[in-house]
Amino acid sequence: MIQAEMICSSIDKVVPAVAQARRGGHELGIDIAGTRYLLRGLDQRQYDELSARFGINSRQGNVQYGQTVCIDVMFCKNKELAATQAIRRGEFVFDYAEAQTVFFSRGIYAELVLHPRLAGRLYIDLQAQALPIWGAENLLRMMVAYKVFMDGGLVIHSAAIALSKLGYLFYGVSGSGKSTLGKQIVREGGLVLSDDLNLVTQSNGTWRLHRMPFTGDLNSDDCYDGGVPLAGVFQLKRGSCNGIGSLGKGQCVASLLVCIPYLNNDLMRQDPVMERINTLLSSICCGSIKIAKGPLLGWLTQILEEGDDQTRIGV
After folding, report:
1. Backbone angles phi and psi of 187, in degrees to 5
2. How many Å from the N-terminal Cα to the C-terminal Cα in the chain?
3. By CB atoms within 10 Å of each CB, which of 109, 152, 174, 261 scores lowest?
4. Whole-model pTM?
5. Neighbour count for residue 36 (Cβ, 10 Å)
6. Helix/strand/coil (H, E, C) string of the chain?
7. pLDDT at residue 64 above 80?
């Protein structure tokens, strides 16, 4: 794998390539959590694929919206970008700074500018075998995570469900069972917000759980498009049988931090992120849940809504 130091030292050589950059002729607005993210300079393929990916959340770029964050997409022929082809597919190299965060991946270089105004720039290597739409989506995910945090909320790598107008969030690293839980709940007729990224916001001391248009194995059509009061937060693990257990607040804070994408590795912002997590857990019950294959909805309904002294949240 290419060394992070070599990649990051090339940043100042990539940016001037914008003078020779080619831009596509399409704009697409994607509405997430009260903000429109306007992607400018897309080519036809990117426009079509991103429109299909985000469905009803996507609109023609020229529609007026309250808050708008711009993401400029540019196609470049640049030796520093070409060097990113040495990065294995799906891997990312990040460089965090006070005013901006950048990342490289195979065939792309992306900038998230934090000050004086949130904005994004995505440079795509013209010589890449395929112009990756996932580059645009990953920059979008990062920008949403930072914007939500600036607005007082958190984006969490998790599965989330709604039961009797209350929301429950199950967080975990890749492979912990988020998509397994989501797909099983959908099969049984339950309501799933997302099996990948979910949003929690605070208003007047009350936390709410919201769906985001980012899913893992589920399709957007499978997900419940709404917000609900947040009633519980659980660390999710796989097990040989279903079970619920207690989790100390310190354990919960540490394990939840791991599941706050992008900001969890930003050392300049880890302390305020942990303060936000502590604020969340001061009013929301936390615990741990293990799931096995098989029916889940009835069991979760019983322990979350009707639990006895041994199974009540937080015991």
Report:
1. -55, -35
2. 45
3. 174
4. 0.86
5. 19
6. CCCHHHHHCCHHHHHHHHHHCECCCEEEEEEECCEEEEEEEECHHHHHHHHHHHHHHEEECCCCCCEEEEEEEEEECCHHHHHHHHCCCCCCEEEECCCEEEEEECCEEEEEECCCCCEEEEEEECCCCCCCHHHHHHHHHHHHHHHHHHCCCEEEEEEEEEECCEEEEEECCCCCCHHHHHHHHHHCCCEEEECCEEEEEEECCEEEEEECCCCCCCCHHHCCCCEEEEEEEEEEEECCCCEEECCCHHHHHHHHHCCCCCHHHCCCCHHHHHHHHHHHHCCCEEEEEEECCCCCHHHHHHHHHCCCCCCCCCC
7. no
Instruction: Write out pLDDT tens, residues 126-167.
Output: 776 455 577 888 899 999 999 999 999 999 999 999 998 899
Model confidence at 90, in pLDDT bands (50, 70, 90)?
Answer: low
Residue from 201, 218, 207, 224 nearest 282 by CA: 207
Q: Does residue 58 surpass a pLDDT of 70?
A: no
What are the residues whose beta carbons fall under 8 Å from the beta carbon of 304, sequence distance 6 or more?
163, 168, 231, 232, 313
Pairing of strands 197-203, 35-42: unpaired
Residue 198's closest CA among 219, 175, 166, 168? Answer: 168
Percent of the chain whose predicted confidence (pLDDT) is above 90: 45
Question: Quick one: what percent of the chain has pLDDT higher than 70?
Answer: 81
Question: Boundaries of CATH 3.90.228.20 in the chain?
Answer: 154-305
Contacts from 217-220 at CB under 8 Å and sequence distance 24+? Answer: 217/179, 217/182, 217/183, 218/179, 218/182, 218/183, 218/186, 218/192, 218/194, 220/54, 220/55, 220/56
Residue type, 113: V
For the 154-305 domain, the top CATH level (class) is alpha beta
